[in-house]
Each structure stands twice: as structure tokens, then as C-alpha cells.
């Protein structure tokens, strides 16, 4: 009998290059303990949704504009996660801070990738390109990315994986963002998805 895989949902808001990295590693069998079965966006038309569709994965879009508030967006996402019996939630460029009601419901089961070495340049207001602008403004010589478990503190949950990336002379925020993605995010996020998926499957079998 085939091993049960952890059912993974990926939450996105933008281009979805981190989602793509996960899907590619899944295709290659490097992620084998979990399977992405659902992609949810809080931004209509996000390119990440097209990537999911191309891979044959179910998608949902829940926007604040359409539903009226952040809380309603969360409620719809939670409903969907429950319905689809999701084991692991991955925030891959998801630009909405989650309430403690949400993070409590999936405690230890939500991963986030952040484009800096936490605790530098993180927390409310630090997202996307802004993180790299802040790193360049401060003049750091090394930055990187972090994958952590999500709790009620923005970017404050336990750190699982980090990878350092050099800042080079003449870097713009865009150039630095791309290097951090290529050298760090696209490696450590898929690695963490496999790690936690494997743990979930083992726990279920009573092996942990
Ligand atoms: C990534 O750099 C990710 O680390 C960052 O947004 C980008 C999304 O890119 N996330 C945050 O800043 C969250 N605080 P992607 O849509 O191409 O994966």
C-alpha cells in the first residue's frame, strides 16, 4: 500500500516562485512525504494561481475586497482547510498577518518563509522588497532567508531552517531579492516542507 502523504495547502499572494520551487521538488520526488493539494490566494489573478493550475492543483481565491474584512478571509480559508483535511499550511509569499485564532487552530502546522535572517528585518511592515531595502539601507554584508513555524507573533515562531546570502557591491533591492530567493528561499522552503510532512506522517503512525 502506498504511504499516506501529508496534505499540504500553500497560501500565496503574488508571483509564486516559492510555490513553484515546492512543486518542482515534488515532481522530482525530493518532496515525497507531502503533496500540495490546494493553493489559496488572497489576491485575485495572482500569478501563483496560474502556476497551480498548470500543475493541476485546485485553487481558491478569497479577497478582502470581496469578503469585507481580513477576518472573513481567514474564516473562508479555515473552512477550506478543514474541508480538504489539510495537515500542513505553507505561507509562500502570503501577505496577510494571521490572527491567533488561525495560528492556534494549526499550531505547529504552519510554515512561513521570510526573506531575511530572523530576527533581522522582520515583523510587521517587513515584507517583500521592503525587507531588502531595509537590509541595504543598514549596510549589512550578509542577509538570507528563514523558514519558521508560525505563531501569533509576526515572524516570531520557532526557526526551522536558515541560509545566509552575501550582499554584493552595487546590489539593488530587486537584485538582492532575486539572489536571496535563488540561493536560499527556493532551497530551504521545499526542504522544510519535506521535513515537516515526514514528521506529520510519522506522528500519525505513532512512530514519533
Ligand atoms: C518571497 O521573497 C517571500 O520570502 C516574501 O515574499 C516573496 C514572495 O515571492 N515573503 C514575505 O516577505 C513574507 N513576510 P513569491 O510569490 O515569488 O514566492
What is the percent of helical residues? 40-55%
Largest sheet: 7 strands, mixed
CATH topology: Rossmann fold
Q: Per CATH, which architecture?
A: 3-Layer(aba) Sandwich
What is the CATH first-level class name? Answer: Alpha Beta
Q: H/E order of the elements?
A: EHEHEHHEHEHEEH
Bound molecules: glycinamide ribonucleotide
What global shape is seen? Answer: globular
What strand line-up does the widest sheet have?
Answer: 3-2-1-4-5-6-7
Going by CATH, the homologous superfamily would be Formyl transferase, N-terminal domain
Count of β-strands: 7
Outline the fold blueprint.
Layout: E1 6-12, H1 17-27, E2 34-41, H2 47-54, E3 58-61, H3 64-67, H4 70-83, E4 88-91, H5 100-105, E5 110-114, H6 129-138, E6 142-149, E7 159-166, H7 173-204
Parallel strand pairs: 1-2, 1-4, 2-3, 4-5
Antiparallel strand pairs: 5-6, 6-7
Helix pairs in contact: 1-7, 6-7
The protein binds glycinamide ribonucleotide.
The site of glycinamide ribonucleotide has 16 residues, from helix 1, strand 5 and helix 7.
Brief summary of the model shown:
The protein has 208 residues and is α/β, with parallel strands linked by helices. The protein has helices at residues 17-27, 47-54, 64-67, 70-83, 100-105, 129-138, 173-204, and strands at 6-12, 34-41, 58-61, 88-91, 110-114, 142-149, 159-166. The protein has a single domain, classed as Rossmann fold (3-Layer(aba) Sandwich), CATH 3.40.50.
Amino acid at each position: 500500500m502506498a504511504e499516506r502523504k501529508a496534505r499540504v495547502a500553500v497560501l500565496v499572494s503574488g508571483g509564486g516562485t516559492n510555490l513553484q520551487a515546492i512543486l518542482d521538488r515534488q515532481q522530482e520526488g525530493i518532496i515525497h512525504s507531502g503533496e500540495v493539494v490546494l493553493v489559496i490566494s488572497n489576491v485575485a489573478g495572482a500569478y501563483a494561481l496560474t502556476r497551480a493550475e498548470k500543475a493541476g492543483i485546485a485553487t481558491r481565491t478569497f479577497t478582502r475586497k470581496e469578503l469585507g474584512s481580513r477576518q472573513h478571509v481567514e474564516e473562508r480559508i479555515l473552512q477550506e482547510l478543514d474541508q480538504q483535511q489539510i495537515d500542513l499550511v505553507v505561507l509562500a509569499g502570503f501577505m496577510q498577518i494571521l490572527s491567533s485564532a488561525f495560528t492556534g487552530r494549526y499550531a505547529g502546522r504552519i510554515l512561513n518563509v521570510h526573506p531575511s535572517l530572523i530576527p533581522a528585518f522582520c515583523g510587521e511592515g517587513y515584507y517583500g522588497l521592503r525587507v531588502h531595502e531595509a537590509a541595504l539601507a543598514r549596510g549589512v554584508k550578509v542577509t538570507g532567508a528563514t523558514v519558521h513555524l508560525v505563531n501569533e507573533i509576526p515572524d516570531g515562531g520557532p526557526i526551522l531552517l536558515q541560509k545566509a546570502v552575501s550582499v554584493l557591491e552595487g546590489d539593488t533591492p530587486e537584485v538582492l531579492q532575486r539572489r536571496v530567493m535563488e540561493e536560499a528561499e527556493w532551497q530551504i522552503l521545499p526542504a522544510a516542507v519535506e521535513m515537516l510532512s515526514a514528521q506529520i506522517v510519522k506522528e500519525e503512525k505513532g512512530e514519533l
